[in-house]
Amino acid sequence: MINSKFLFALRMIAGIILLQTLYYKFTGAEESIWIFEQLGVEPWGRIGSGVAELICAILIIMPQTTWLGALGALGIMSGAVLSHLFILGIEVKGDGGLLFALALVVMFCSAILLWHDRNKLLTFISRK
């Protein structure tokens, strides 16, 4: 069993990272607009991913729904990492790879949280 303080830290790290990036998406920061223009989905991709990240952050922070938020965040961050690897590059507009690293951190935290709550996920999947 994983220590509850460690799980709390993972939930807070993933949730805070997801929440702090919303400012840039929702205010239309230059870097955020550039990223989604490169992906060909500006502005709806930027706003939509922001809404999805907000929902995932809230779900991750709440212990009873952590598994669901972690599953969503894992999917969203997988898309972000793949976008960095194949379209954007690791470094975006001189950020030194910070956005890429943050996506990896959220993926790592989400993967551990989802693994820890895998029984909740399996119960949800096996419902008829």
Q: How would you explain this protein's 3D organization?
A:
With 128 residues, the protein is an all-alpha fold. The protein has one domain (4-126). It has 7 helices and no strands. Helix 4 (44-61) runs antiparallel to helix 5 (66-88). The longest helix has 23 residues, at 66-88. It is elongated. The two termini are 29 Å apart. The relative contact order is 0.15. The model has no long low-confidence stretch (mean pLDDT 96).
Key terms for this structure?
mainly alpha; about 130 residues
Short structural description:
The protein is mostly helical and 128 residues long. It has helices at residues 4-20, 22-27, 30-38, 44-61, 66-88, 98-116, 118-126.
Structure class? mainly alpha
Radius of gyration: 15 Å
Helix content: over 70%
Please tell me the overall pLDDT.
96
> How would you sum up the major sheet?
none
Strand content: under 5%
Low-confidence runs (pLDDT<50, min 5 residues)?
Answer: none
Written as H for each helix and E for each strand, in order along the chain, the element string is: HHHHHHH
Q: Specify the overall morphology.
A: elongated
- Strand tally, please? 0
Number of helices: 7
The termini sit apart by 29 Å
Structural domain count: 1
